[in-house]
Amino acid sequence: MAIHKILFASLLICLLIQSSHAATKERLFSDLEKSALEVTATPSRVGEGVVLAAGVDKLSITWKVSSTATKEPEFKAIKVKLCYAPASQVDRPWRKTENELFKDKSCPHKISSWSYDPAMKAGQSFDYTLERDIPTGTYFVRAYAVDTKDHEVAFGQSTNEDKTTNIFSVQAISGRHKSLDIASVCFSVFSVVALLVFFVNEKRKAKIEQSK
Amino acid sequence: MGDPSGEPGSSMHGVTGREQSFAFSVASPIVPTDTTAKFDLPVDTEHKAKVFKLFSFANPHMRTFHLSWISFSTCFVSTFAAAPLVPIIRENLNLTKQDIGNAGVASVSGSIFSRLVMGAVCDLLGPRYGCAFLVMLSAPTVFSMSFVADAGGFITVRFMIGFCLATFVSCQYWMSTMFNSQIIGLVNGTAAGWGNMGGGITQLLMPVVYEIIRRCGATAFTAWRLAFFVPGWLHIIMGILVLTLGQDLPDGNRSALEKKGEVAKDKFGKIMWYAVTNYRTWIFVLLYGYSMGVELSTDNVIAEYFFDRFHLKLHTAGIIAASFGMANFFARPAGGYASDIAATYFGMRGRLWALWIIQTAGGLFCVWLGRANTLVTAIVAMILFSLGAQAACGATFAIVPFVSRRALGIISGLTGAGGNFGSGLTQLIFFSTSQFTTEQGLTWMGVMIVACTLPVTLIHFPQWGSMFLPPSKDPVKGTEEHYYASEWNEQEKQKNMHQGSLRFAENSKSEGGRRVRSAATPPENTPNNV
After folding, report:
1. Which residue on chain B is closest to A196 by alpha carbon?
2. Under CATH, what is the fold of the domain B57-264?
3. How many beta-carbon contacts under 8 Å exist across A and B?
4. Which residues of B touch A19 (CB under 8 A)?
5. Residue B495's beta-bridge partner residues?
6. Is the pTM of this model over 0.95?
7. Using CB atoms, which residue from B87, B140, B243 is nearest to A192?
8. Phi, psi (degrees; rounded to nearest 5) at A38
9. Architecture of domain B265-512
10. Which of B90, B226, B245, B376 should one mutate to test binding to chain A, selecting the residue with the greatest count of A CBs within 10 A?
11. TM segments (chain B) (predicted)?
């Protein structure tokens, strides 16, 4: 009976720890200062219906602190991320936009991170080659400004609030390789042939035995 | 003696309630030992083993057991191999929630048909070739994951891989050629439970293999394709092992097989009729769909659920998901054992109550799992849910042998198919649409389990009663003999074809509960002397 009490108590403690831990995480996106950063993202190829290739095409990204930013003294680092446009979130709940920052999954792809000091108000400009694990979809770029506690305080994005302008399309790599395909076919053929060889061999041995 | 064909449930062992139900061996006076045979284990006159020695690899009996359950487990590994990697695959192939759900449905649907065909294949080629053919011919389907480029391809390949779950049939069939029918119940139950563990092993194995391949430098979208080579190689290895180390019969291979016509072969049409017209069959089809079925569905969704909901790494989600499937190691036999204990006190009514309680408890824990908001409560709820669902599977097959004597094989097959069908249906309704989030889907699945377990209350045996009704007091209709003999018509009874059923009826009297057992025949009169 004592062991049951110990197990129950430890379970209770674990649950309490979990629930208290969760309570501190409710920082909301709507609390962040909007448009504190001005972000532009220009794909290396532009035009109607152009789809960028992951691993090949680049984005020219610039960010700078907007003149209207009020929380600028708190900025300690700028994190630039690739985010899904609404069209890529349909029927895909693992990419959902949530107001609670720790739950939000719409910006999973990190582009780069910059330590910030007040001399950098004019911002940065850099090229980013789309990584090879970026999935097929439509995207925009967002930059978060974080404070010393690594909590987001402000942001800016390359599109408007409804996420309809300046959206670009990316086509993922297929992940397929010729060598993989060939290996796959070889092993499959081996499996079938090995089976048939065994089968025919045993039937032949059985016939020989029976005829003896 | 028990039925020599050794079909699932034909074992007389434990039926009187006086023998320990999960005993590992058959005592000599009950089944005579053939002392001339030179095997590592004591064998009967057909050279089938009388002892189940778990940690032995002795040729041929125990070796067959291990080859058999490992190849069945390998098929579970490959059928559910995609599930823990879905977070990567969905990004590569641009899948929607519907695509992922449909692929899950496809993975369990194929085997509904392949299991039916496998019985015939085993009759024609023998279980060793049945197993080897299936395992080696489905290896190409596993390797073809490297070609998949979109949702359609993904669904098709998962459907084709799912066919290999028919190794369940070859596994059970092969054991029945190697083990005496008195212990075949335990042997087959252990093999089935350990085979199902493959669904848990894969949740651990695939993320680890994927991680290793990634660390070696492959990109994510190539690494998961390479990871599928591992289950593919397992298929080839197991196929070759089965062909080289296995044998069809205790004395050798099938090349010199002669079928002994001891018992007049029954007509398939008649057996089918008695299976289909017994209403209890259909209740069990539904019930198993919500014990085994929900287990298969959960194998498909649980890793992705933990990954998304609790922001875990892929292999952490895999470890947690694995513990769901691994519980099969002891949960399924425990369910059968619980049913046997209930039967010693309350007979068949006890078995029905045990099944209802265990399966309903599993359903309630599933509801809790869907509503759990923290990681720890979710894990606890999931483990309790797994114990409930898997024990319910064991408890179901503790009752199925009593539903019919003549049509037992078909009823067992239909019940098994019901499991896969229930899985497909549940995944289609709750996990394939944007209408429900996965946590809502789990909650509603739990509610559906509770609802679909209620029909157990309708199962009534005139000779033993049901959950709420006592047995019939009619002196003729309330006997075991009447129930089991009613499956034979007058012409067949005149040919004495129903003798097996009458023997079974005599031995099943212990299902009447404690009152019946205390008034039973004295211990020296073993049932096998009837």
Report:
1. B133
2. Growth Hormone; Chain: A; (1.20.1250)
3. 125
4. 374
5. none
6. no
7. B140
8. -105, 120
9. Up-down Bundle (1.20)
10. B376
11. 67-88, 129-149, 155-174, 186-206, 226-250, 271-290, 310-331, 352-370, 376-400, 407-430, 442-461
